[in-house]
Amino acid sequence: MATIGQDISVVKKHLEEGKLVAVPTETVYGLAGNAFNESAVTSIFKVKNRPSFDPLIVHTNSIEKVEMFVEEIPELAHQLINRYWPGPLTILLRKKKLIPDLVTSGLDTVAVRIPSHPLTLELLSQLDFPLAAPSANPFGYVSPTQPKHVDDQLGDKLSYILDGGACEVGVESTIVSFVDEPPRVLRLGGLAIEQIESLIGSVKVNIHSSSKPSAPGMLKSHYAPGKSIELINDFDLNATHDFSAIGAIVFQDLLKELPTKNQIQLSATGDLNEAAKNLFLALRQMDENTKIHTILTEFVPEEGLGRAINDRIKRATAQTK
Ligand code: TXA
Ligand code: MG
Question: Out of 3.100.10.20, 3.90.870.10, 3.40.50.720, 3.10.580.10, which CATH number does the structure's domain 3-205 have?
Answer without folding.
Answer: 3.90.870.10
